[in-house]
Design goal:
Tetracycline Repressor, domain 2; mainly alpha; 58% helix
């Protein structure tokens, strides 16, 4: 695999968009390999088919954006208590996330003049979700987290939207898991997230 690139999506027929080839980093610094390693791990988690088959995340460009945003937010929250280097790493990973999105939007054929406006909207969505999920997770409120996920992932579905409680429970479990990750794992880009169990077998 070429240095600085991640593999294509894990689904059999990945749709174009959020999970295009990544690695188009503009920065070339000592953190690059660490950023690539950690970003690859986070995106691999968000590609897992079980989220789309069992956790009611729609397998669409925006569904993938929502799930990857949730995964990024989990990592971002973990690094709040890290040393300065860990916080800087988290910011570089978020920057990589937005570079990936920018690349994906252009691959979808969006005109160059429209890309900045769309990127601004998506960035606003991401940071809005960071705030709403944080409010629920800081209070260990799985119901409030599920409600926030429901609003964001199914904005037009109203009362007919899935409950999203399983995804909320996984996020709570993932946050607890990340809290036990050593700083050395953060510093080396080796942090992991727990595998989501299949619903009906060992559902959260």
């Amino acid at each position: 695999m070429q240095q600085g690139r991640a593999q294509r999506g894990a689904l059999n027929e990945p749709i174009p968009g959020i999970f295009m080839i990544f690695g188009l980093f503009r920065k070339r610094n000592h953190n690059q390999l660490i950023v690539v390693r950690q970003y690859d791990t986070l995106t691999a988690m968000a590609r897992l088919p079980v989220f789309y088959t069992d956790y009611e995340v729609p397998d669409t460009v925006m569904g993938r954006f929502e799930l990857l945003s949730a995964v990024m937010i989990l990592f971002f929250r973990r690094t709040r208590s890290s040393e300065t280097s860990g916080q800087e790493l988290a910011q570089e990973i978020v920057d990589a996330f937005f570079e990936d999105i920018d690349y994906s939007i252009r691959e979808l054929g969006i005109g160059d003049n429209s890309v900045p406006k769309r990127m601004k909207k998506l960035a606003g969505m991401f940071y809005g979700r960071l705030e709403s999920y944080a409010a629920a997770m800081d209070g260990s409120d799985r119901v409030a987290l599920a409600a926030a996920l429901r609003r964001n992932i199914y904005p037009k579905a109203g009362e007919g939207a899935p409950s999203m409680i399983a995804l909320a429970d996984w996020m709570m479990t993932a946050e607890a898991h990340l809290s036990g990750i050593a700083e050395t794992e953060i510093a080396t880009g080796s942090a992991t997230l727990p595998q989501p169990p299949e619903i009906g077998k060992d559902a959260p």
